[in-house]
Structures are given as structure tokens and as C-alpha cells.
Design a protein that fits this description.
By secondary structure, the protein is mostly beta strands. 12% of the residues lie in helices and 49% in strands. A hairpin with a 5-residue loop joins strand 1 and strand 2.
């Protein structure tokens, strides 16, 4: 009996240590691209400005929360637009500025052709690095 109890305790301890985060999902803007990152530590919400991107230079707002739905400022974020149908990467690298309180401004998003694109985000934080791919609304001419 003692062996069974000890086994159960160790099973509970180790299963808790191996689990991934379960984020609280807080989406602010209706119609935005919203998703948890690969490990679930962050959630990312992408809002294109304007909502319907066009061929050329575009802008977006990005909201980042941690798994407790707390706004996370001070992250280093790399944004890479990728044409999902062709697998090609945009010819320029967007700039990502921290606007404070978990809001980031992504500028100089070059979308050189129409079609379906996604924004690959690489997030580097004080406690956790992670990544996520968010779809961009269909790019029009």
C-alpha cells in the first residue's frame, strides 16, 4: 500500500512539472489574428492597420500577454512576413517598437504581392522565449 501511495505522489509531482502552460485567452479586438504561442506561455494578438492590408508597406498593432493574461512590455520581438502559398519571405524586415503595457507597433511590413500571408513572431522575454505564426488577412492589390 505504501508503494502505491508513494508512486501516486511522484506521478502527480512529475506530471505537473512536465506540463505546458495553459494560457488565459484574452482577445481585445474582434476580427484580429489571435493565438497562443507554441509553449502557451504567451498569447499574441495581431491587428493590421488598416484591417485589410494592401500590396506595399503596411502597419500592425501587436498585443502580448503572458499565460496569466497580464500585459507584457519590454519584450524583444522579431517579425517575419511569409507568403503562405509560396513560402517566400518579405524582402524587408519590419521594425517592432514597444509602445508600453503589452502593446507593440509593427511598422514597415512589406507585402510585395497579393495572397495569403502570415506573420511569424519570435518573442524573447526575460523569463521565456517563444514563437507563434499569425495569419494576416488576405493581401489585396
Amino acid at each position: 500500500m505504501t508503494k502505491v501511495v508513494v508512486f501516486c505522489i511522484f506521478s502527480l509531482i512529475f506530471s505537473g512539472c512536465a506540463s505546458t502552460y495553459t494560457p488565459e485567452m484574452v482577445q481585445h479586438i474582434k476580427g484580429s489574428s489571435f493565438k497562443a504561442t507554441h509553449t502557451g506561455y504567451y498569447t499574441a494578438e495581431l491587428v493590421m492597420k488598416p484591417k485589410q492590408p494592401k500590396v506595399g508597406i503596411n502597419k500592425a498593432h501587436l498585443i502580448i500577454h503572458d499565460y496569466e493574461a497580464t500585459d507584457i512590455p519590454g519584450l524583444t520581438i522579431k517579425a517575419v512576413p511569409v507568403h503562405t502559398q509560396k513560402g517566400t519571405i518579405s524582402n524587408t524586415t519590419p521594425t517592432v517598437k514597444d509602445a508600453g503595457r503589452g502593446l507593440y507597433i509593427i511598422e514597415n511590413i512589406s507585402l510585395p504581392e497579393p495572397g495569403m500571408w502570415e506573420m511569424q513572431l519570435y518573442i524573447k522575454g526575460e523569463f521565456k522565449n517563444d514563437s507563434v505564426e499569425l495569419p494576416i488577412p488576405e493581401v489585396m492589390n
